[in-house]
Amino acid sequence: MINPVTRAALALRERRRAPDMAQIMSALPVPVVLLDTDNRFRFVNHAAEQFLGISASGLSQLRLRDLVPEDNPLFLLVEQVRKSDASVSDHDLSVDSPRLNKQGMAVQGSPLPEEPGAVVLVLQDASAARALDRQLAFRGAARSVTGMAAILAHEVKNPLSGIRGAAQLLETSVDPRDRELTVLIRDEADRIRALVDRMEVFGEKPIMRTAVNIHRVLEHVRKLAQSGFAPHVRFQEIYDPSLPPVWGNRDQLVQVILNLVKNAAEAATQEEQPNPEIILTTGFQHGMRLAVPGSRARLDVPLLVAVRDNGPGIPDDIRPHLFEPFVTSKPSGSGLGLALVAKIIGDHGGLIEVDSRPGRTEFRLHLPVLTDEEADFGA
Ligand SMILES: Nc1ncnc2c1ncn2[C@@H]1O[C@H](COP(=O)(O)OP(=O)(O)OP(=O)(O)O)[C@@H](O)[C@H]1O
Ligand SMILES: [Mg+2]
């Protein structure tokens, strides 16, 4: 017979024992689904029942293909999880079938080490993903200026060089007192020309790609910053030396990093911050994939490049429009920096994410690597 003390101790242990995993899963507010090897729904939590609009008992009779067409990229994702035995995520998945209609979902798939072939899916609505305060600036963030840029480049540049030339001619013949005015015309024409040149990058031109060593790009920009616009900022570099090259355009990537570092330096050197610091990080992240616009294809973007500063954070009123052109909080800013960054990263098939709070703002770029296929084409 068990004595009362032992019984009490056992009861206590029983109470302390962690609750069943399924109970924890069911309490989670995030939709979670477990698929078995045959893509049958082995487990769904309450949030997933609501998300999919089907009860757990209903789902237990179904397979994934009953909800999602078999050519949907979700199947590819699940297969890739099984094949690579690693987590794979997709930030922009849409399903349009009679039983399920979801646009722009974020889905993360992970293997279950105890059960080979089983895949855990964590689903997220587009609106939920937004609520997470992770701003995903997809390609096309700067699309609104594309057409305008082309028009500006064509229609403004020619007459502008005429105006500039005429002012220069006048300069030689006018009264010295009026020369000031011709110089003004010339300088202002140069300023407009510089602005148009910056806008021209927004035009739709295919980019020339090669294998780019991103560490060299970062070093180049760091040197520019330290000898130019950010002499008092402390730089810290945390690089992954085994990183493969980026499949991209070097000059454009320099522009991207330069704009991010310039913003970081401008933020970090605001008065409240006595020790301005910028941290540059690179890394490799398996399983980061993106949709290729206009097709069902998926592109791997495993290269991670981050620029972090210890400035005051992005102002609240700027946040929702961060990557739009002409959005600025700076008295002499043009607000083109991040629009340009978003455009270039979009053209590269990559993604940019932001995390910002007072004292810590980080811009993260996800970029594609050079694959064997492209290397074979003599890249
Ligand atoms: N690292 C950062 N920390 C805080 N705010 C930032 C940061 N980066 C960008 N911002 C905010 O986003 C706005 C837009 O940045 P963007 O680079 O597009 O334009 P800009 O820096 O104002 O002007 P430009 O780059 O054309 O000189 C900035 O004015 C600023 O308010
Ligand atoms: Mg800027």
Please give a structural write-up.
The chain is an alpha+beta fold and 379 residues long. The protein has 3 domains: 4-132, PAS domain (Beta-Lactamase); 144-200; 210-376, Heat Shock Protein 90 (2-Layer Sandwich), CATH 3.30.565.10. 42% of the residues lie in helices and 22% in strands. The strands form 3 sheets. A 7-stranded mixed sheet has the order 2-1-5-4-3-11-12, with helices on both faces. It has a 6-stranded mixed sheet with strand order 6-14-15-13-10-8, with helices on one face. A hairpin with a 2-residue loop joins strand 14 (351-357) and strand 15. It starts with a helix and ends with a helix. Mean pLDDT is 83; it is low at 131-143. The chain binds adenosine-5'-triphosphate and magnesium ion. The site of adenosine-5'-triphosphate (ATP) has 23 residues, from helix 11 and helix 12.
Compile the SSE list and pairings.
Elements: H1 4-16, H2 21-27, E1 32-35, E2 41-44, H3 46-52, H4 56-60, H5 64-67, H6 73-84, E3 88-96, E4 101-111, E5 119-124, H7 126-131, E6 135-137, H8 143-173, H9 176-200, E7 210-212, H10 214-227, E8 234-238, E9 246-248, H11 250-268, E10 277-284, E11 288-291, E12 298-300, E13 303-309, H12 337-347, E14 351-357, E15 360-367, H13 372-376
Parallel strand pairs: 3-11, 8-10
Antiparallel strand pairs: 1-2, 1-5, 3-4, 4-5, 6-14, 7-9, 10-13, 11-12, 13-15, 14-15
Helix pairs in contact: 8-9, 10-11, 11-12
The protein binds adenosine-5'-triphosphate and magnesium ion.
